[in-house]
Amino acid sequence: MAEKRDLIIVGCGPAGMTAGLYAARMGLNAVILETGICGGQMMNAWEIENYPGFEKISGGDLAMKMKAQAENAGIEIRELTPVEEFKFSDSLKVVITAKREEIHAPAVILAMGATYAKLGVPGETEYHGRGTSYCATCDGPLFRGKSVFMIGGGNTAAMDALFLSNIVEKVYLVHRRDKLRAEQAYADRLTKLSNVEILWDTILLEVLGDDGVTGVKLRNKKTEKEWTMNTDGVFIAVGSTPNSSLCEPAGVKLDDKGNIIVNSHQQTNISGVYAVGDITGEPRQIVKACGEAVKAVTHWLTVRPIE
Ligand code: NAP
């Protein structure tokens, strides 16, 4: 016998946890399924300064507060429960876990988030875990007192460069243009730091190494000059890719970047299937994820069939 629920939420980042909080408070018999542990990408953020109500809070602390609040409201969260397959019809949503357990519900909220993108240069994958990293908060302390490279010009690269500047001797921030994409507040702080040097108009061509990373090969896009520099660590933050690979086979429409297409109520093209948070695309912000989750739950409550 398949387990039956009023609502299944897939993903336990800020979007999933907010959906769970609202669903529980509104009396729905819902469950959150999470591949790993709750928190999503914010677990990698050493400091969050733009979540209202907290001037500064670490991503880990915010995640734990959200989880406790949702669980206190009554939501059941199943961590370490990867989902393997979706089967969606208008009247029934079937979610199948990696253990081939089936959960049935009339509605599902897809909140699987996004994962860091890869740059695709030689050496990047080969030295992953041996000098290349996508998580400054996790791996930064391994490079104490050393020089490292941070690749990217968005909020993640800027935040991570700020974090690394507290630990390492020098951070080279490599950006392919002459202006950061990151918020001005981060850019202002970075330019004031004596141990952060921004290499503008520059791209990473290759990560060099032997047993681990030993250097980088770079190119200035304007002058076309190529050169190498020694380093032990290369951090990469060049955007993120939505975790939507299970969605298309289940008939959920995606855009050309793999984001789930939703309307203003967070409805996908399948009735009763909603998508919220980073999986719906930019802006990838915690407050946006939370807001979308509220819209999805409240919309489902207004349209669901009453038994
Ligand atoms: P992002 O905003 O998409 O920025 C990616 C950066 O990597 C851009 O500067 C981009 O350059 C560069 N890039 C992309 N492909 C590249 C390539 N092939 N070679 C060299 N550089 C490349 O990604 P993100 O910084 O990871 O942030 C992801 C999302 O999370 C964003 O929506 C961001 O706002 C959000 N986020 C928010 C916060 C916050 O609010 N505190 C913190 C972290 C992340 P161009 O600028 O030239 O395109």
Give the number of domains: 2
Which spans of ≥5 residues are poorly predicted at pLDDT below 50?
Answer: none
Question: Rough shape?
Answer: elongated
**CATH-scheme architecture of the largest domain:** 3-Layer(bba) Sandwich
Please summarize the sheet with the most strands. Answer: 5 strands, parallel
Identify the strand order in the major beta sheet. Answer: 4-3-2-8-19
Q: Work out the radius of gyration.
A: 21 Å
Q: What's the CATH class label of the largest domain?
A: Alpha Beta
Bound ligands: NADP nicotinamide-adenine-dinucleotide phosphate
Q: What portion of the residues fall into strands of 2 or more residues? A: 25-35%
Secondary-structure class: alpha/beta
* CATH topology description of the largest domain: FAD/NAD(P)-binding domain
CATH homology group of the largest domain: FAD/NAD(P)-binding domain
Structure notes:
Helices cover 22% and strands 26% of the residues. The chain has two domains: 3-115 and 240-303, FAD/NAD(P)-binding domain (3-Layer(bba) Sandwich); 132-236, FAD/NAD(P)-binding domain. It is α/β, with parallel strands linked by helices and 307 residues long. Strands 4-3-2-8-19 form a five-stranded parallel beta sheet, covered by helices on one side. A five-stranded parallel beta sheet has the order 10-17-11-12-13, covered by helices on one side. α4 links the parallel β11 and β12 (170-174). The protein is built from six helices and 19 strands. It has helices at 14-25, 59-73, 136-139, 155-165, 184-191, 286-303, and strands at 3-4, 7-10, 30-33, 76-78, 83-88, 93-97, 102-105, 108-110, 114-116, 132-133, 147-151, 170-174, 196-199, 202-209, 213-220, 226-230, 233-236, 240-242, 273-275. The protein binds NADP nicotinamide-adenine-dinucleotide phosphate. NADP nicotinamide-adenine-dinucleotide phosphate is lined by residues 50, 119, 152-157, 159, 176-177, 181, 203, 237-240, 282-285.
